[in-house]
Write a structure and sequence with these properties.
Number of strands: 41
Distance between the termini: 44 Å
Shape: elongated
Radius of gyration: 34 Å
Oligomer: single chain
Helix content: under 10%
Largest sheet: 14 strands, antiparallel
Amino acid sequence: MKRLLGVLAAGIILALPTMAQTVEGSISGGVVDPSGLPMSGITVTLTNQQTDFSNTAKTDSTGSFLFLSVLPGQYAISAQGTGFKTSKRENINLTPGDRLAVGQITLQVGTVEQSVTVRAEGAVVDTENSDHKALMTSDQLEMLQTRGRDMLTLLNNLPGVVGSDTNNLDNRSTPNFNGVSNVMNAVMTDGQIGQDVSNPNYWLSRPNLDAISEVTVLMNNYKAEYGRNGGAVVLTVTKTGTREFHGSGFSYFRNESLNANDFFNNLNGVPRSTYRYGTYGFTLGGPAYWPRKFNSSRQKLFFFESVEIVESKSPVSLSQWTVPTSLERQGNFSQSLNTGGQLIVVNDPFNNKTAFPGNIIPQSRIDPNGQALLNVFPAANFFNRTISRGNYNYNFQDTAVSPTYQEMFRIDYNATDKLRFFVRAFSNYQPVTSYSCDGQFPNWPLERCRWEQNMPGATFNSAYTFSPTVIAELSASFSTTQYHVLPANGSDFSSLSRAKTGVNIPQIYPANNPLDVLPDTSFGGVTGAANIAPRGDFPDNAWQPRLVLSGSITKVAGAHTIKAGVYNEYIHYYRHGNINFNGTLNFGADSSNPNDTGYAYANAILGTFDSYTEASGRPTYYLKSTNLDWYAQDTWKASRRLTLDYGMRLAWFQPFYQGNGASANFIPSNYNPAQKVVLFTPATVAGKKVIINPLTGEVVPTSYSGAIVPGVGNPKNGIVYSTTPGIPQGFVENRGEH
C-alpha cells in the first residue's frame, strides 16, 4: 500500500499539465412538443445515477441539446419547461468514447410538478457515429467464463477477433482485430496507454476483471483523436465509487489433486507435478467523508479500491535431454551408443584419428576444465532405451512459482459544476521463480532464478466547462515497466560461477563478466544435448518509463462540434544488451577440425573445442524517443438525418536513438575499398584441404577459417557513430509530419 501511495503522489505531480487519448463521450438529443415541433430554451438535466452529479443545458433554436466531456456510466436525462410535464429517461448507458444520441424527448402538456418517467427502453440506435466498434459491459465481464480471469481472453468473444492466447493463465498478448496485426493495436485504461515499450503487442498494465466497468473496442473508421495507432483501439474504463458503499470479495482455486497425470509423464515414470492456482481479492467503493467540507452532500468525492492476489504454482512442460553419463565424465565411452544402438567411436586426434583403445580416453589426457564443464550437468536419470530410443537420458519437469499482486486505487472529485477530475494509481508486481527464467535459461536445473516484473503507473484526468458550448480536457499519465532477473536465492551465483564449478577458462575481456559466469557451451552432434546457456543479459535490469501529456478543447458552433487536441509522448528504454559477455564454446563434432574426436562429449574431455567467440564489450540500451501528435475534427449535423464526421491527425515521431551516444552503424558510402580486410581462406596444399593466410600462404589452424587476418585493413571500415558530425540520432532521418 505504501508503494501504491507513492506512485499516486508521483502521478499527481506529473499530471498537472495534460492527458492521453480521451475516454469521455457526449450525449445529445432533442426536445419537441406533442405536435413534433422543436422547443428551444428548455432546461435539460443530465444526472449520473451512481453519484448524483448533474449538469444542465438549454435547447437551442432547433430544440437540440448536447452534453460534452461526459464520463462513461449510467445516466438519467430530464427535460422541463413551463406549461409542460417534466419528462425523464433513466438507465441511459454511455460507453467509453461514445457519442450517444438519445433521440427526441416529447414534452406533454401539464404542470412542471407532473412528470413522465421512462425507466427502461430498447437499445438506442446509434445515429451519430460512423465508428465500427464493439462493447463489453461489466455484466458480461462478470458472467462470461475466462481461464485466468483475464479480460484479453474475453475479447475473443467479439466478432472479428482472433489470436489471444486462451491457454495462457497470464495472457499478455492482445488479439488481432479484423485481420490487422496486434502490434498495431492501441490499448488504454482510462486514457492511459498500457502496452510494453519493447513489445507493443503486449498489454502489461491491465486491471483485473473486478476493477473494470466497461470495454469498448473501436475496430476501424474511428475519429482523428483515436488515430495514434493504425489498428484497433481498446478503451478500458475502471470502476468508480458511488454515493453508496459497494464492495465484493472473491476466491478461486485449482489443485493438482483434481488433475490426472500427463500421458508422457506416466510413460517416463515422472510423477504428477504440483499445480496450484488460487485467486483472491476484494473491491470497495463509495463516497469519501473526509474532509467533510469537500463532500457534505456525498456527491463530490468518491473512491474505489481493487486488490487481487494470484498464487500460482504451475508445471512447465516435461523437458528431456541427453546429458553426459557418469562413465563419459571419466573419459570412458565404451558404452556410448547412438540412436541406432551402435557404439559411438571416439578417435584419438594425435594418433592418426584411430579409435582410443577400448573407446576410453586415458586419464592423463583428460582436460580438467572440460571435465568440470560436463560435471555441471545433472546425472542421467532415465535409462530405458526402448522408450527413449537413445534420444534422451534425462527427464526434468520444473514447477514455476509466479504470484501476482495487483492494486488499483481511484479518486473522483466533482469540484464544482464546471470542474471535475479523477486520479487513478495502479501497481502490478509479479515475481516468477523457475529454472527457465522467462524462457531464456536452459530448462534443466542449472540455476533457479527469479524474474521480477513491476508495473506501477498513475493517471490524472480533468475537464473544465467554460460555457455550455466550450469544454477543455487536460490530463497526464505516467507508467513504467521494471524487470529484474537474479538468482532465486539472492546473491548466490555458485551454480553459475566458474570458480565454484572448477571451470578455470580465462576470458579475453574479463571485465565484461564481473560475476564470473560460466561460458555458453554447446555440444553439436549429440542428439538432444543439454547446453549451458545463461541469459546474455544476466543479471538483467530493465526500466521502461513512459510519460504522456495531452489535452483537447471542444467547441459547439451551431450544427458543428469541433474538437482539437495535442498528444505528447516521452519514452525511455534502459536495458543490458543481450550478448555473449561470458564467451561461447562449441565442442561440436567437426570433420574439418584436425583435433576432432568425432563426439562432442569426448572433445570436451580432451579440451578440444571447435570454436570460441566472445563479445568485446557489454553495451547497455539507453533508447529515447518523443512522439508529438495533433489533430482537429468536426462533427457536422447537417440535418436530422445526415451527420458528417471528418478530421485530420498529424504526427511528428522522433526515431529511437541511443541516449548516451554509444551506438554505431555501417554506411556503404563511407566504405573505402583500399582499407578492406583480408580473411583466412580455405585452400588445397599438397592435396590436403587447409586454411591459409592468403597474403603469405601460411597454413593456420582450421578454426581460423573466415577470421580477419590481423594488421591488414580497417575492421571498422564504413562504420559511423551517433556522435559523428552530420549523422542523425538513431541513424534515421526524421520523416517530419505525416
